[in-house]
Write a structure and sequence with these properties.
mainly alpha; two-stranded parallel ribbon; two-stranded parallel sheet
Length: 167
């Protein structure tokens, strides 16, 4: 989880690869209307997000029902969003990729082919509700190289044995 530019997709792909788990990119679950809204520089509202988050929750439940572990990217900026995701039949744990706004802006400005404009970073940072101590998850600094972020997440979540024995 994290704001745009935090490296969610890059780190999640590495985690999924290292653990031998299924990977899903939450952006692919957005309806076209949400993508068009973001492309135009308009922040999504909660009513825009609820169906998208519900689709992610349901996908995670389906993976759990099939006996599969998965890594999913998702901004999950608010506790209420994370609460909805935790409604999955899967155990949902969060890795919050966090770092300075300047680094996030630099990363967003340097990427191409993504629908999220840098102008929405401010609204995402304002919306962000950091993980609370009672939430199942860890915070990892994006100031580390991506592979080190993935390794730090695996260690912090106690998944070292899972990466040695992928399903």
């Amino acid at each position: 989880m994290g704001v745009s530019g935090s490296g969610k997709t890059t780190v999640a792909r590495m985690l999924a690869g290292d653990l031998g788990w299924t990977f899903a990119e939450a952006d692919e679950f957005h309806p076209r209307a949400n993508i068009e809204k973001m492309e135009s520089g308009t922040p999504l509202t909660d009513s825009d997000r609820w169906p998208w988050l519900g689709a992610l929750r349901d996908w995670a439940s389906e993976r759990a029902d099939a006996g599969e572990d998965a890594v999913v990217t998702c901004s999950a900026l608010k506790r209420s969003y994370r609460d909805l995701l935790r409604g999955s039949r899967a155990r949902v744990r969060f890795v919050h990729l966090d770092g300075p706004a300047e680094l996030l802006a630099q990363r967003i400005g340097g990427r191409t082919g993504h629908f999220m404009p840098s102008s929405l970073l401010g609204s995402q940072l304002e919306t962000l509700e950091r993980l609370e101590p009672d939430e199942d998850g860890v915070v990892v600094s994006i100031e580390l190289p991506a592979q080190e972020c993935a390794r730090a997440a695996v260690r912090a979540l106690g998944l070292e044995t899972a990466s040695a024995d992928p399903r």
